[in-house]
Amino acid sequence: MLKITDARVIITCPGRNFVTLKIETSAGIHGIGDATLNGRELAVASYLTDHVLPTLIGRDAQSIEDIWQYLYKGAYWRRGPVTMAAIAAVDTALWDIKAKQAGLPLYQLLGGASRTGVMVYGHANGGTLEETIAEAVRYQAMGYKAIRLQSGVPGLASTYGVSRDKLFYEPADARLPTENVWSTHKYLPTVPKLFEAAREALGWDVHLLHDVHHRLTPIEAGRLGKDLEPYRPFWLEDATPAENQAAFRLIRQHTTTPLAVGEIFNTIWDCKQLIEEQLIDYIRATVVHAGGITHLRRIASLADLYGVKTGSHGATDNSPVCMGAALHFDLWVPNFGIQEYMRHTPETDAVFPHAYSFEGGDLHPGEAPGHGVDIDEALAATFPYRPASLPVNRLEDGTLFNW
Ligand code: CS2
Ligand code: MG
User: Fold this and answer.
1) pLDDT digits (tens, 9 = 90+) for 314-366
2) How buried is 297 (Cβ within 10 angstroms: 0-12 exposed, 13-18 middle, 19+ buried)?
3) Does one domain contain both 361 and 225?
4) For atom 3 of ligand 1, which residue has the closest CA?
5) Of 16, 36, 122, 117, nearest to 340 (Cα)?
6) Cα–ligand 1 centroid distance for 211 (angstroms)
7) Quick check: is 328 catalytic?
């Protein structure tokens, strides 16, 4: 019996808010899990502190599956981003503990390495097409094999994915949601031009990706997918809101451009139809938002049956703890596709010392026991929580739209 003796939530803000769960055990081994839900951090912190952690004390830290089932089925009010991020944090911390107890890097417990490294994609963005291409050339020079392209839209003051800072992207930019203005009419013609210029500048070996960020109707997504086919995108992400999984049938009827979706999914039920009907090519669910290693493994196994690959979310608001755990998962999972990698700031990396490293366009989780990431609690305490919200979007006529 490896008794759970203590469990606490650590909220820190080294440039942006992160919520981390730390679980201590009777053998003196501790584990940590990411519980960060951008813009809703305190909701998850409270769900853990007030409703979950008291039930963990005294339990056997080795019983990962039983604890997962206890927190999922015992919640009664199942699923949802807050609940599943809380369960994910517990699950990730317990896998960290189990691997440390075994003295092995986490990927060895999952089934060993299936590849030499984890191909990642970086984020080239700019206010203009020219700026974006220049950034993409810089990412290619840094050794990235895959690059996401997000460019400003003429006539729009802002758009998704274009940030002031070129290496880090933080959309939660104010205490209360800032209001952005969107026009699909202005946006749609810009993406094919961006991809044409990118192929001209970067050639055909590099993978090129784009995130629509939930902003098209299915038929508009079919149009954009078709317009991009000559430039061979690696994927078109979040082409249309995915609550209606059947909506992707319409996109599939019009384009062979590969589709990726799922960074906001929190259980297998959000993507079961998308996977079983092969309506997507990559599932973007993450360790932190989809119930941890235990549940993400189930999603990936279902996806594998239908030729769908993983492409986990890895934005700056996923902490290094999530990234570390994700890389062990990515090194093992047989149907791996790609891993998103938005770098963290130096102060974030200092709060979360980690074993993973970047080389030649791949990340590797390292060989440290566990998931290889820890938290410097003293340093974390010097960065107090700072309330921040994600933006909202309105159309030019004021209609509230998808951000
Ligand atoms: C984006 C994210 O990385 C992505 O694909 O969709 O930047 C997303 O907007 C943020 O994680 C939201 O907090
Ligand atoms: Mg996205």
Assistant:
1) 999 999 999 999 999 999 999 999 999 999 999 999 999 999 999 999 999 99
2) middle
3) yes
4) 315
5) 122
6) 9
7) no
Structure tokens at 322: 């999530």
- Active-site residue, from 207, 213, 313, 344: 213
In a domain, 17, yes or no: yes
Q: Give yes or no: residues 198 and 74 share one domain.
A: no
Give the ligand with the smallest distance to the CA of 313.
1
Mean pLDDT for 145-160 is 97
- Is the pLDDT reported for residue 9 higher than 80? yes
Q: Which residues line ligand 1 (CB under 6 A)?
A: 38, 169, 171, 211, 213, 263, 313, 315, 317, 340, 390
Confidence band, pLDDT 50/70/90 cuts, at residue 163: confident
pTM metric for this prediction:
0.98
Query: 340 has which bridge partners?
Result: 121
Looking at the structure, tell me whether residues 95 and 218 fall in a common domain. Answer: no
**Ligand minimally distant from the alpha carbon of residue 169:** 1
How many residues appear in the chain?
Answer: 403
Residues 155 and 100 both lie in one domain = no
Residue 150 CB neighbours (<10 A): 23
Spatial contact of 47 and 21, defined as CB atoms under 8 Å apart: no
Residue 385 falls inside a structural domain:
no
Pocket test for ligand 1, best of 313, 319, 392, 403 (most atoms within 8 A of CB): 313
With the most atoms of ligand 1 within 8 angstroms of its CB, the residue from 263, 316, 318 to mutate is 263
Dump strand ranges (E) for 62-178: 118-126, 146-151
Question: Does residue 189 share a domain with residue 49?
Answer: no
**Nearest CA among 260, 257, 313, 258 for reference residue 290:** 313
**Whether residue 160 lies in the annotated active site:** yes
As a whole number of angstroms, the distance between CA 222 and CA 240 comes to 10
Whether residue 96 sits in one domain with residue 160: no
Residues 26, 127: one domain? Answer: no
* Average pLDDT value for residue range 141-155: 98
- For 116, counting Cβ atoms within 10 Å of its Cβ (0-12 exposed, 13-18 middle, 19+ buried), the class is exposed
Determine the average pLDDT of the residues in 4-30.
98
Specify the number of domains making up the chain. 2
